[in-house]
Amino acid sequence: MRGNGDRGDVELLERKGAEDDLEAAYKTEAYKWSFQELCEEFDTDLEKGLMDEQVRKKREVFGENKLTPKPTKPWWYKWAKSVFTGFFNILLWVGSILSLAAYGVRPEEKTNLYIGVVLAAVVLLTGTFGYFQESKSDAIMNSFKEFLPQEVNLLRSGNLLQILAVELVPGDVVMLKSGDKLPADVRFVAGANFQVDNSSLTGESEPQNRFCEPNDARIPREANNLAFFGTLLVKGQGKAVVINTGDNTFMGRIARLADTTATVETPIAKEIKSFVLKISALALLIGAVFGVISGVSSDAENKAVFTVIFVIGIIVANVPEGLLATVTVSLTLTAKRMSHKAVLVKNLEAVETLGSTSVICSDKTGTLTMNLMTVSHVYYDLKEFECDTESPLDGEFDTENKSFQDLVRCGALCNAALVKVDGTITGDASETALVKFVNPQFGNNIAEYRAQFPEVHGIPFNSDNKWQLSIHQVPKAEDEPLDHVLVLKGAPERVLAYCDRYLLNGEMLELDERARETIKDGVTNLGRKGERVLGFCQLDLLSPKFDNHEFSGDSRENCNFPFGRDDDEPGLVFLGLMSLVDPPRPGVPQAVAKCQSAGIKVIMVTGDHPITAKAIAQKVGIIQYDTAEDVAYQRGCPVEDIDESEVRAIVVTGTDLLDNIDGQDDATKAKFWNRVINKENVVFARTSPQQKLLIVQACQERGGIVAVTGDGVNDSPALKKADIGIAMGKTGTDVAKDAADMILLDDNFASIVNGVEEGRIIFDNLKKSIAYTLSSNIPEIIPFLLFVVLKIPLPLTTVMILMVDLGTDLAPAISLAHETKEADIMRRSPRNPKTDNLVTWRLISFAYLQIGVIQALAGIYTYMVILYDFGYHPTQLPGLSGSSQFEMCHTNEDFKYLYCFEDVNVACEYSSNGGLTYPQDFPQEISTRIGIRGGFPMECDARKEALEFANTGYFISIIIVQWADLLICKTRFKSIYDQGMSNRFMNYSLLFETILGAFLIYTPGVQDVFSTRPLHFVHWLPGIPFCILIFCYDELRKAWIRKHRYGWLERTTYW
After folding, report:
1. Residue 561's closest CA among 537, 541, 579?
2. Is the confidence at residue 648, as pLDDT, over 60?
3. Per the UniProt record, which residue ranges are transmembrane (predicted)?
4. Which long-range contacts (CB under 8 A, 24 or more apart) does 871-874 make?
């Protein structure tokens, strides 16, 4: 004995602990052991199962047979973290708190209350949105629960019982039958003809045969006597021993890997985070520096409050509060457009990520292929003919050829698949593929054709025979004796062994050695294409010998009809071959080519066989060059003799990964990954979920923005690790969908190309939105700097800045998301996230130093024009707000009146007396020129009114110059005359921002909230010349760039 029960439990527990490291591959030795060793290791009995006491002990060690979700923080904690942390959020919270504090000190200034509330609302909304984005993967572990069956039949204490699947423990002996979902990882010990569907776990498109005998496979996943939790037993009935339960199963390790894999921050999130950090730090720095200057130089009564208000203004002016809202809405609009192209976006930021993608790691089955076996080639008359996998009637074959007709008849009769009334076909994958091909040859009425050939005997396929046989009556007149035909299909080597003749152009010839070798070459060629090859043969059983014959037998040895068993017995007649393949989806080769022309490397990562993977990769264009194996085959030399630098394509198996990564040092691993990933064409086959994760990580470490496609459970860790995970909508498991950022509703790889194009468009358009948004920052900052440096009355209030950032600028900024592409963006390389940033110094230079400066000049000019109309000459403005009493004078009678004079060289003076008499040398004081309230001496309320008109004029001037700013941001290279004005949303947004601006200044009640005043029409006009200047300047700049490509102007101003 290898050990008693206690020792077995200890050994199992040690293995359990050893596998806690998620970096370790799934390991078990159970597939290598004999039945006796298996029973000793798990302390079980194949005939009686476990005893009740053993079950109790094992459950104490291993727990219930279910997956354990990782501990998670409560939702309110995640929400609070999203709302109250982060530099941008903290900055806005500080601004909000300071505003509310200032309102507490000076309740009469209600604008501070409005600012505090608005800033708090902005950070609450953006934080809440971030919370919903970050919580998208919480449901991954829950999706795995669907793989656990409710109940299972097993042997316990010698009794056949039915228990809940969660009560299973290692060592239990379970009874399985066709259609059962595997309740745990098991080793088959009794039964025959097992087949399991591993497609959701490994990506293998065909059911896999399973046996009971010990196996010497290198890794458990390759063992043909194991089946894993969550897979489906599609054929067979028998007995199996549970070897792993719960978290220790292959599925459990995938679940934990997916659940613990950190979600990668998207490129757009990194860009925005970096930009917000920089712009916020700049705001804080400017606010602090000029706040100190203001505090030191101010002689205001409430110096501290005054300084705080100033700092708030600087922060609000610098920070684009509407930026996150603009980005969110723009991404949402793009996601909506993508939904019409069969792409469902779960994570909005993934929209742009797809456009930045430089590497696509694509699954094969169901993504690049249809996940539907189809006849790809037929072979008859010693020749190979290609079939049309989309249209069975089309192909290179001749439907009138007698050899082809007999081959099709054999495929129709020697077939257990059935066609239902609604046209659906039931049966295993291979037989269904054959019926799909032959049914149209019989007018899509194979049932009627089969009825003409009643089956009288059959031998079903089994793993020992590797063939299927049936005998049918041949249609005859009623008075004629019955003839029969024997039809057989199976493994080509078996079929050839049973044949001594073959059909050539409908004529029966002896199957000599030359013909036999020709057929073998045909089998080899089809196999090299990665296709599953089936051989077909027949034998006419003619009357009178077989007229009333009772056919019997279930093997070649015991059947009572000819089977070529000796020289006295005729052999069968070879008809031909049919090869099956899971064909590429329509449009996939074109989509792959388009990705490659866009500079995106497409890598196939599959759990399927290397030959099959390579064949499909060649068909869809992922492999375009010869591999080392191909070159060696062509030269007739060993693969080791081929120089690595000669080949541009490579197929890497999971075993290769084990040899080159497992236990190797970092330098060796890096050398291996560099050698593989730097090849132009790359395919990974027979990979495990852990290896797929390592492949994604290796691509990311080499600077790639990686998109991963997948539909199975095995894909979920990589989907989550990728920069963008893309799951299949039709065939994808819920696990894959939960882990993904995006879902292809039509399961078509070609839809990814649409997503890439939309992603690139939205990146360009986000740059335009940001350029538009940032341009208004300078005209918002300059007023505060002039207020401190020159001590002029504040040209623009903080609340008006929020009116621009969260009001008039939002719709135009969002409208740029609707802008069409400027050029064929699918012909340019993916952007480099290290250099091709969303916000570059050239963009900041464009927005701040070029357009922003012109906008600031427009605002200052409008401000001065309006104050001049109230009697304040521009040269008299400096110094008027030195004591902050220009508009805030109610608490100090010394500043109740202000006297200004026609001689602009004489400074204005404050006084508590409104009826002064002046010396003769003083010129007569001036009065208002447009008759609005006041006169001289100007009282506090009149001065406040004049400044509010000037503030309002400055606000309107920003709207006017933003008209031009919006138009020039439509394009970065083309002229607006070439781009056109087809963006109706933008056209309406121009009208909207103007109407909104008018509403804010002309609506009673609203004026009191925002301190605006109803401007005369003449005061809308000063900003128009600057609007025209901006438009003309940028059109000339872009024209020069188009004419002088890559010149100095493009290098310094193209953003």
Report:
1. 541
2. yes
3. 83-105, 111-132, 275-293, 305-331, 839-864, 985-1005, 1017-1036
4. 871/900, 871/926, 871/927, 871/928, 871/929, 871/936, 871/938, 871/946, 872/900, 872/908, 872/946, 873/900, 873/904
Residue 363 falls in the annotated catalytic set = yes
Whether pTM > 0.90 for this model: the answer is: no
One-character DSSP codes across 245-311: -GGGSHHHHHHHHHHHSPPPPPHHHHHHHHHHHHHHHHHHHHHHHHHHHHHHH---TTHHHHHHHHH
Say if residue 412 is in the same domain as residue 463.
Answer: yes
Does any domain span residue 721?
Answer: yes
Q: Same structural domain for residues 410 and 434?
A: yes
Q: Count the neighbouring beta carbons within 10 Å of the beta carbon of residue 633.
A: 13
What is the CATH number for 770?
1.20.1110.10
Give the count of domains, the chain: 3
Q: Identify whether residues 491 and 477 lie together within a single domain.
A: yes
For residue range 949-977, list pLDDT tens digits in order. 999 999 999 999 999 999 999 998 889 98
Q: pLDDT tens across 532-585, in order?
A: 899 999 999 887 788 778 898 888 888 889 888 887 788 999 999 999 988 888
Residue type, 983: N
Domain containing residue 451: CATH number: 3.40.1110.10
pLDDT at 135: 60
Neighbouring C-alpha atoms within 13 Å toward the C-beta of 59: 15
What is the end-to-end Cα distance of the chain in Å, rounded?
Answer: 76
Q: Please indicate, yes or no, whether residues 779 and 721 belong to a single structural domain of this protein.
A: no
Tokens of 28: 């078990």
pLDDT at 13: 36
Considering only residues 985 and 424, tell me which one the structure prediction assigns the higher pLDDT: 985
pLDDT band of residue 141 (cuts 50, 70, 90) is very low
Residue 133 is predicted with a pLDDT of: 60
Rounded Cα–Cα distance for residues 753 and 594 (Å) = 7
Question: How confident is the model over 253-259, as a mean pLDDT?
Answer: 78
Query: Of 363, 656, 723, 805, which one is the catalytic site residue?
Result: 363
* CATH number for 668: 3.40.50.1000
Name the 3-class secondary structure at 237: strand
Burial of 66 (0-12, 13-18, 19+ CB in 10 A): middle
CA 128 to chain centroid? 22
Nearest to 64 by CA among 214, 169, 155, 204: 169
Cα distance between residue 455 and residue 461, in whole Å: 16
| DSSP secondary structure string for all residues of 57-103 | HHHHHH--SS--PPP---HHHHHHHHHH-SHHHHHHHHHHHHHHHHH
- Report which residue type is found at 451: A
626 in a structural domain: no
pLDDT, residue 600, reads 93
One domain, residues 511 and 573: yes
pLDDT of residue 937: 65
Answer whether residue 219 is part of any domain.
no
Could you give the strand order of the β-sheet that contains 897-899, starting from the edge strand earlier in sequence?
909-911, 897-899, 938-939
Question: What does the radius of gyration of the chain's CA atoms come to, in whole angstroms?
Answer: 40
Residue 859 · residue 782 · CB < 8 Å: yes
Residue 605: domain span: 343-369+586-619+648-747
> Is 45 contained in some domain?
no
Q: What is the dihedral of CA 544, 548, 552, 555, to 10 degrees?
A: 20
Span 245-258, mean pLDDT? 84
Does residue 577 share a domain with residue 598? no
In whole angstroms, give the CA distance from residue 972 to residue 807.
25
Q: Which of 687, 717, 747 is the last residue of a domain?
A: 747
| Rounded Cα–Cα distance for residues 477 and 473 (Å) | 12
Residues 573 and 593 in one domain: no
The CA–CA distances, whole Å, from 193 to 84, 225, 461 equal 61, 11, 9
Domain stops at, among 747, 778, 804: 747
**Residues facing residue 177 across a β-bridge:** 237
d(CA 515, CA 530) in angstroms, rounded, equals 23
Q: Choose between 266 and 987: higher pLDDT.
A: 987
Do 430 and 403 have their domain in common?
yes
pLDDT confidence of residue 903 = 64
